[in-house]
Design brief:
The protein contains two helices and 18 strands. By secondary structure, it is mainly beta. About 20% of the residues are buried.
Length: about 350
């Protein structure tokens, strides 16, 4: 005779099963959404507003001999880029009345950061030769060529510090440059300078630090148009965990990232440097100043553009399912009534002196 197996749930199994059911009913995380976010700024080096400048260069003469020239002037301009993207990870759905979990972080593009400034006025001109001194009589080409270059004019100064980097939040980026304003002591031999020299340099150091991306997270119910807003600040490269307001209406909620701006600090430091050197035609030594006098030291924020992304992602708010109340079927009621009648009839036929003992 075969024994039927019975299924039972012990206390420990009950807890495990309940936990499994809870896990399966929790909202799943949707796929990651990536929004390209590019910021740029171009303004005056002195705190804001517009700047002016020009840059002209060229050459005069045939290929073999001629003069190259460059004339540029700029009242002071700073340019910057901070390109990357906002990565969004969010739950796919929540129950009505619950908050939705969202993770936001910034990912910089490789070499997507740029900081450059230009200030000063400078004119340069130089001569060049390209002469064949030993021709090849067999091929008509040239065995040996000489192409010396020499300076004719070098007046004024222009400093142009520049750096290229991968954007990261809360990280300072520096750019430095210097140019000789005047110098005395050496002998100019056309092809270069020789001898001791005291140079007066313009030295510029700039830096940019983006501390956070600020903006507004705006939720909008797709069917009714109901909205809510919540401020957001992404201030670490590790990301930002936030909770939306309670999603009080069932259905899809669309989310916008509104007015994303960079909170940043830009510094501009210009010094006058005194540099004693020894010139040796193709270079000089040392190259660092012996002393510096500060001329300008200012700090302000660059006016980067803002970005807004509509319908960046969506979350579904699910209405709770009302409990189902079971109603006895008519056949069940009839069967119960028949059984009750049978029990009553049997009770009347049983002897009156029957007793029940324990």
């Amino acid at each position: 005779m075969k024994t039927k197996k019975k299924f039972s749930i012990s206390g420990g199994n009950t807890i495990a099963l309940a936990a499994l059911l809870m896990l399966t009913t929790q909202a799943a995380w949707a796929g990651i959404v990536f929004q390209n976010t590019d910021f740029s700024a171009s303004q005056s080096l002195w705190g804001g507003g517009a700047s002016a400048g020009f840059d002209v260069s060229g050459s005069v003469g045939p290929t073999a001999v001629g003069v190259e020239y460059s004339v540029k002037s700029n009242s002071g301009t700073v340019n910057a880029q901070f390109n990357g993207g906002i990565r969004v990870n969010h739950v796919d759905s929540v129950n009505v009345g619950e908050q939705a979990a969202i993770i936001l972080d910034f990912v910089g593009d490789s070499n997507g950061g740029f900081l450059n400034s230009i200030f000063g006025a400078k004119a340069t001109a130089g001569g060049y030769f390209d002469i064949c001194v030993i021709p090849n009589i067999f091929t008509g080409g040239c065995v040996t060529r000489v192409n010396p270059e020499f300076d004719l004019i070098d007046a004024g100064f222009a400093v142009e510090p520049e750096t290229i980097f991968t954007p990261e939040l809360d990280t300072k980026r520096n750019a430095n440059d210097s140019d000789e304003l005047a110098g005395v002591g050496s002998v100019d031999l056309i092809i270069g300078e020789v001898g001791p020299k005291l140079s007066l340099d313009i030295i510029q150091a700039t830096s940019l630090k983006v501390s956070s991306i600020d903006g507004t997270l705006q939720g909008r119910h797709r069917d009714t148009g109901a909205t809510f807003s919540k401020a957001l600040k992404i201030d670490t490269n590790g990301g930002l965990d936030i909770q939306t307001n309670s999603l009080s209406l069932s259905g899809l909620w669309d989310f916008d990232l509104v007015d994303l701006t960079l909170t940043n600090t830009f510094t501009n430091d210009i010094d006058l440097g005194f540099r004693p050197t020894f010139e040796y035609i193709v270079g000089s030594w040392p190259n660092s100043p012996l002393a510096k006098v500060g001329l300008i030291d200012e700090t302000f924020s660059l006016g980067f553009n803002s970005n807004t992304y509509s319908n960046a992602f969506s979350i579904n708010a699910i209405a709770p399912v009302p409990p189902v109340t079971s109603v006895p079927a008519p056949a069940s009621i009839a069967l119960f009534s028949l059984g009750l009648v049978v029990l009553i009839r049997r009770g009347r036929k049983s002897p009156a002196n029957n007793s029940f003992t324990i």
